[in-house]
Each structure stands twice: as C-alpha cells, then as structure tokens.
Design goal:
The complex is a heterodimer. Chain A is α/β, with parallel strands linked by helices. Chain A has a domain of 149 residues: Rossmann fold. Chain B is of the alpha/beta class. In chain B, the strands form 2 sheets. In chain B, strands 3-2-1-4-5 form a 5-stranded mixed beta sheet. The longest helix of chain B has 23 residues. The radius of gyration of chain B is 18 Å and the shape is globular. Classes of the chains: A alpha/beta, B alpha/beta. Chains A and B meet through helix 17 and helix 18 of A and helix 2 and strand 8 of B.
Chain lengths: 400, 260
C-alpha cells in the first residue's frame, strides 16, 4: 500500500464517525446500503450506518469467517451474499471490530446495487422492529430514460415525507441543498483523484483506492469528507506530477472489475508488485465518483439529477453499457489488460462475466482474465488457483 | 555441452525433463508428488540426471512450473503451466493451435500463437470437476487402477449418465450406480463422458483450431480423448508422454533464457 499522509486523517475520520454513532444519545441511526441517497439523511441530522462497509472491515481484519459461521448456524444459507452473512453474524454475536454496529432506528435501502438488500433489510427490520424505506431503482437495461427518473423522484418525495414524519419536523430543503453541494464536491475530488491513474506510472493503485473508499461511501455530504478528498487529491496529484509510481517498476497496467477480495488485499498487492503490474483503475471505486455527480443549480430542482446519478451506476447497467465503459477505461488509462473478479457473493456484478471478457478483449485487442473468488468469504478462496490464473494472464500481456 | 531442465511439480505428479543445447530431449522422469512437493521435484530432477549420466553442474538453467513451482529448490526461474504447455506442445507439434491440458487439479484450454505465445486461455472454475483428481476419485470409488479406467470404458455396453458436476456428488452417484449393480465398464465410460463434456466448454471458449493437442495425465485415458474429440468435432493429437509436456516447456523456456 502506498504510504499516503492522508491515511492517518482517514483513520481519524472513520474512528470519530463510529464513536459518534456508537455513543450518540440525540441523533437517530439509520442503516443504509452503499448506493442509497444518503444526502436525505444528513439533511435531517441522521447518522447513516453502512453494514456493507462494516462487513468489509470484518473481512479485512480477518474476522469474517467466524461471523459468517454464526449466521450459517442461525440458518442463513451459504449462498447468500457474504456481506449479509458477516453482518448477520456480527449482529447475532455482537462480534467484529468495535463489537458490532449501533442499533438502527430505521432502515434505508436502494436496489441499485442488488436485490438481495431488500430481503437482507427486511430481516433487520423484523429483528429491530423498525421501519424500512426502500428506494426502488430499476435496472437500466437500455439506458436511462425520463420514466425511470420520474419514478425515482416520486420515491424521493415519499422519502422526504417519511423522514419528516419520523423525525417530527418538516424536511429541511435548505440544509438538503447544502448537503448535495458537499456530496457533489467530495465525489468530484474522488473522481479527479481516481483519474490521476491515467499518469504513467500510476501514482496509486486500486488497492489504495479500495482502502480510501471509506469516507466517500459513508460520509459523502459532510464537510469532513470534502476536506479529506481534497487533501488526498492534492497528495496524489503531487506524486503524479513527480512521476512517483505506486510500485517500483510498472510494466503492466490493468483494470480490476468488481469488489476487492477484502481478506487478500496484502497478499494480492505483493503479488502484483512482484509481477510489476499496477491495478490502475476499478469499476468499483469509480462508482462513487459517478454517484452524486450532478450539478447543484442555485435555482431549480436537483431531484431529477440526483435520481439520474443514483440510477446511473455501473452495477445497475445493462451489458452494452458495461462493455463500452470497460473498453473506454482500457483506452483512457492506457491499460495492458483487465482482471475480472467473478465474485460469488455479488451476482449482479458477476453475471455474464465470461461474455464481457470476450467482448472487451475483442474490442480492445487486449487480454483479460476471470478469477473466481469472493469479497468476504475466505473459505471458498484458493491462493494457488487464483495466482496461477493471474500469473498466466500477466505472462500473456504485452508490457507498456 | 550445456543442458537445460524443466521441473513440473503438480498436485499428482512431479515431472522433469532434461534437454541438450540443441533442444533435444536427453531424459525425463514422472514421479508421484506425494506429501512433499519440494522433495518430489528434487527426485524427479535427479532421476533425469541419473538417466542421462549427468551432474547438476552440467545443467545451465532450470525453470520450474506447476502448482509448486515456487518451491522447487533447483530452479532459477518459474513459469505457469499455461505458458509451459504452450511451449512444450509447440515443440512436439509445430502446427499446434489449441492445447487441452487436463492435469491433477486444473483443466485448461490454451490458444497458442507464434513461437508458443499464449494468445488466450480458459481454465476450470474453482471446483475440481473434470480434472485428473476427479478421475482419480472415481477410479478409487470403482476400485480400478487409474491407468485402467480408459481401457475399461471401451468395454461399456450400457449408456449411463453422471449428471453432477461436483466431484463429491459425482462420487456418490458412482457409489449409487455400483450399488445398483451397474457394470464398472459402463460407469467408467460415464465418468469419461462427464470429463469430456466439462472440457468441451473450455475448448469452445478459446476456439478449436486446425491442430488440437491434448496434454496432461488425463490424455492417457483413451476414452476421454475419444469422447472429447467427438464433442469438439475435431481429431485430437496426443504425445507419447502427455504428462511431461509442462516440464518440457519449462526446459525450453530455460534454454531460451526466460522464466524470470
């Protein structure tokens, strides 16, 4: 991992966030999915808690197996998303980092990342006997259209009513617009930082961006989040300027598709560094650069733009769009190949991957490889199998 | 005269090949890997030296491959099985386009380009279905020697199906077929068919070219080769010693001075 000075700032930010969430007496807590419109919550002074983010922390700190086992003992199938199982296990045992999550007062989930979240959040809603608000964001089979945006905006209006009733005061539009502006600004810094990967050698690698994802997922819409990504952007820009690469020698530059393998971050990082290969860009980290990527006008209604940005995310796209986008990233970032993580946990991200690989390879005339793994479950991961495939892929790539 | 060696330590066998300066095979060995892969690699290497009447000092460079490639003490470099099978396959069949290699825990199809360059490859997913290990488990369930499975299949009279792709479930299917009194020959044929079907998908993904070569231990099973050939609709060439192709490729890579 690249030693960014901003890292300690991020740790402080995330620690303070969890401490506040665990200790607050005044602020309500809402559990929320990673792709839900969090801006509505910040506008009403509600603390958002991300079970997905927490599950990733559990895996990165090698605590996910025992938690998943607890969930499986309680009857949850091994075929369910490993994030969900890790969180169910943490909830059952009150285990995991910081001994579990603060209990929710209500739940907000959006289907733009997957449909599992509906059932997952229904389980949580039943257990805590709290309301669940679902923002249904239909899959973009053939791109975005006005009907889909209107449909989503209607739900945002309902969400406002729900929040207003739940908190017991009118929805704060002025504050909401401030939050939107902050969210947009943070996402823009993040996006600009990620696009510095176009520099050869890349000043950071994707494992860095996975680590630095925390605040853009959990705190977008806050001033602290903007400040943090501004700081990180400046630091990375300086490295790019001085042509300091993330690894000593960069011969190969590749894209990573899908979530990280959270429990193998260090090993994979060492592996890629040894092979002189930088993971330059990921569709996953990029998602939060596109999200909240709307202009907040002084006048007018930003709801449609907000709806569009929450609908228009990679994992909610149809095949054609994904292929085009992958091929575009391959060119823009001067990549020599691409790695697709067929993630057992995440079906909407992994479905059709072999076909995607074939199409993108054909379009870009560069090789790609599919590896079978999981974001959170080390029990189905094999170092030797994954590394042999990756190594053979690297052997077959032309260097830059 | 300088010699070059390739050592392929896989999950089932450890193979070594020694070639001379001109690239001619001087000797080779195939030994079971057992429970000590490092030792198995050394023993295979030493066996080739003994056969050729050479010492370690006569070998200019050693390249390892296979699952234990990082633990081969004698090697100065390593390459994946994919690269090595491509090189070895090209050496034996200069017009090779597609290589199908079924090893102990992996099966793969490789599209080979000029000079043995890997253009594309496809491998089995996580599970061991359709690999050598699959065949080994089924042979043991049938109480038939691994090397007898192929010949036995040709005595098959009745067509049976093994539908599960999971090795563990397929094994229980075999056990249940045995308990139904089905003939071992028929079961053996069904096992071969299951492997061929799984592998056909891999070959289709990279493409079947004019010359298809099959390598790896499973290529010794004539029934699998025949069924696979039927499934892909193309003849398949099998080297005399399909198990040593990976080690041979590694030796060629050593001779080329490559292998990091």
């Amino acid at each position: 991992m690249t030693e960014f000075k901003a890292f300690s700032k991020m740790k402080e930010l995330m620690t303070n966030y969890y401490i506040e969430a665990k200790t607050t007496k005044e602020k309500p807590i809402a559990w929320i999915t990673s792709g839900a419109p969090v801006e509505f919550l910040f506008a009403m002074d509600i603390i958002p808690i991300y079970p997905e983010n927490y599950a990733a922390m559990c895996a990165a700190s090698h605590q996910s197996v025992e938690l998943m086992e607890a969930a499986e003992q309680a009857g949850f199938s091994q075929d369910i998303c490993a994030y969900a199982r890790t969180d169910f296990g943490a909830d059952i045992t009150q285990g995991g980092p910081a001994a579990g999550l603060p209990p929710p007062h209500f739940l907000l989930c959006s289907t733009n990342i997957c449909k599992t979240v509906i059932k997952w959040y229904e389980v949580v809603a039943r257990k805590y006997n709290v309301p669940l608000f679902i923002v249904d964001t239909p899959f973009l089979h053939e791109g975005l259209n006005k009907d889909l945006i209107d449909y989503t905006v209607t739900q945002f209006r309902d969400l406002e009513d729900f929040l207003s009733e739940f908190i017991g005061r009118p929805f704060d539009r002025d504050r909401f617009y401030e939050v939107l502006a902050l969210s947009q600004e943070a996402a823009e810094h993040w996006r600009r930082m990620l696009y510095l990967g176009k520099t050869v050698p890349s000043p950071f690698n994707s494992l860095d961006s996975f680590i630095h994802l925390g605040p853009i997922v959990t705190l977008r819409g806050t001033k602290e989040c903007v400040d943090y990504y501004k700081l990180l952007y400046e630091e990375v820009a300086e490295r790019a300027e001085k042509k300091i690469g993330s690894i000593p020698e960069e011969r190969y530059r590749v894209l990573w598709d899908n979530l990280p393998v959270w429990f193998k971050m260090r090993r994979l990082e060492r592996f890629f560094e040894e092979k002189k290969c930088t993971l330059v860009v990921t569709t996953y980290a990029n998602s939060w650069g596109g999200m909240s990527n709307y202009q907040v006008e002084e006048e007018g209604d930003p709801y449609e733009l907000l709806a569009a940005s929450y609908l228009d995310v990679y994992i909610n796209w149809g095949f054609e769009e994904r292929i085009k986008y992958l091929a575009q990233l391959m060119d823009e970032f001067c990549l020599t190949g691409f790695v697709m993580h067929s993630n057992r946990s995440c079906k909407p991200y992994s479905v059709g991957m072999y076909r995607l690989q074939e199409e993108v390879s054909k379009l870009t005339a560069r090789p790609g490889v599919v590896i079978e793994a999981d974001q959170n479950d080390p029990r189905i991961y094999s170092d030797a199998q994954v590394e042999t495939r990756l190594e053979a892929f690297i052997e077959s790539m032309d260097s830059i | 005269m300088g010699y070059y060696a390739g050592i392929d330590v896989g999950s089932l066998t450890a193979d070594a090949v020694l070639i001379d300066e001109d690239g001619k095979i001087a000797s080779y060995a195939v030994l079971p890997t057992g429970n000590n892969s490092q030792k198995a690699g050394t023993e295979a290497f030493e066996a080739t030296l003994a056969q050729a009447g050479l010492n370690e000092g006569d070998v200019a460079r050693v390249v390892s491959t296979g699952y234990s490639r990082a633990r081969v003490r004698e090697a100065q470099g390593s390459k994946t099985e994919i690269a090595c099978h491509a090189k070895g396959g090209l050496y034996l069949f200069p017009d090779v386009g597609t290589i199908i290699d079924i090893g102990g825990q992996d099966s793969k199809a490789i599209l080979v380009g000029r000079e043995g360059r890997v253009i594309n490859f496809a491998m089995n997913d996580k599970c061991a279905a359709g690999t050598g290990r699959f065949l080994e488990v089924m042979a043991s369930a049938l109480d038939v020697g691994l090397d007898k499975m192929g010949d036995l299949a040709f005595e098959s009279q009745e067509e049976l199906t093994i539908s599960s792709i999971c090795t563990v479930f397929a094994e229980s299917e075999v056990v249940s077929l045995i308990s139904q009194g089905k003939a071992p020959a028929d079961i053996s044929m069904a096992v071969s068919r299951a492997i061929a079907r799984r592998t056909t998908g891999l070959a289709a993904r990279v493409g079947v070219t004019d010359t298809v070569v099959m390598t790896g231990g499973v290529a010794k099973n004539r029934a699998v080769v025949k069924l696979l050939s039927e499934d892909i609709g193309h003849s398949i060439k099998v080297p005399d010693e399909p198990q040593i192709v990976g080690a041979l490729g590694a030796a060629i890579i050593a001779r080329e001075g490559d292998g990091g």
